[in-house]
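Proteins fold reproducibly. Take a tokenised chain:

. . .
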Amino acid sequence: MSTPAPAAPAAPEPSSPPVLPRRRRRGVVVTILVALAAGALYARYRAASGDSAARWMTVAVDRGPIEEAVSATGTVNPVKTVQVGTYVSGPIIAIDVDYNSPVKQGQRVAKIDPAPFAVKVRQADANVANARARVEKSRADLALKKLLVDRTRALVAEKIVSQTDYDTAKSNYDQAVAQLALDEAAAKQAQASLEAEEVNLRYTDILSPVDGVVVSRNVDVGQTVAASFQTPTLFLIAEDLTKMQVDTNVSESDVGRLRQGEPATFTVDAYPGTAFHGTVAQVRNAPITVQNVVTYDVVIAVDNAGLELKPGMTANVSSITARRDDVGRLPVRALRFRPDGAAEPKSRREGSTVYVLDGQETLRPVEVRTGIQDAQHVELVRGDVREGDRVATGVRRETASTPPPQLPGFAGGGRRFR
């Protein structure tokens, strides 16, 4: 039996690339997709953050009224306020009025203990009586001295007494005349002292000097007041609360626009939403300097017939200095806006520059002359600007400094897959 011949060896198959594991293939695919998504987002961010992100903020030119006003803060005060004090010192034994009490001129409002002053009056009265008695004594002595000098003159004529006796009698008479004058002056002085003590006694009754209302009371019964160095203020009396005034401090840059008789309005915190009306009664010339800031006191006269306003209230005052009706109006912000690279603005006297948005979305500079202005608008006096034109007031930009969004797991250089 024959042995079969061995089979010829098979030809080798052509080589193929190595096959990656399935897990590794999946990681590579995810990495590529994440990179493509991040690139698309970054390209979109770059496109949105370029120069095309700039957008002009504009406001249309319109027509309407403009009121120019000077604003200030002040205090509501009575037109006339009297500080009632005391001329003499002593303890208070009676108080006849209280807060908000109406008083009449000459009415007693308080009383100081009069006992010490009554004693001084009696002492001064005794001094007057003593001085008058001395005057009577001096007059009697003068009459005697006159009689002696006349008698001595007659005796000298008859050569009964010497001339020396006459000279002595004449000297005594002259001294008596002088003594009478001294005693009469002392009597007048004593009388004056008596009147002074009587005045002090009357001052123990503290009287109201005006008709009005008691605004404040600074003393109580039993309290001792001393008027030796400075007259203490016991009461504050407002003469008429139906007529009030607002004292405001206006800066030196605004005071030149105020004129006496101009209307003014103000509000107080006690009545929110209610406007009170008055007129500029006085622009005082005395400067008030506080920390190198110069202001002037401007007085606003107000009718307070309803007694709504109380002394000491804080008032926010607005005084209208000029008004225009139905005029062209520009936004105030348009005068302050300057695009990048624009020239420096001119002074207000030479005119101002605004930037009008034309149909090609570009800005066109226009020279304008302006008039009065309020908080939001300024009067357009002259310029190549028409009603309805839009003027630039600012630049609106997207937040170009915001970093591009990052997908989860791709921050800090990307996530590694193995």
In short: The two ends are 62 Å apart (CA to CA). The helical segments are 22-48, 115-157, 163-202, 332-336. The domain at 71-78+242-323 is CATH 2.40.30.170 (Elongation Factor Tu (Ef-tu); domain 3). The mean pLDDT is 83.
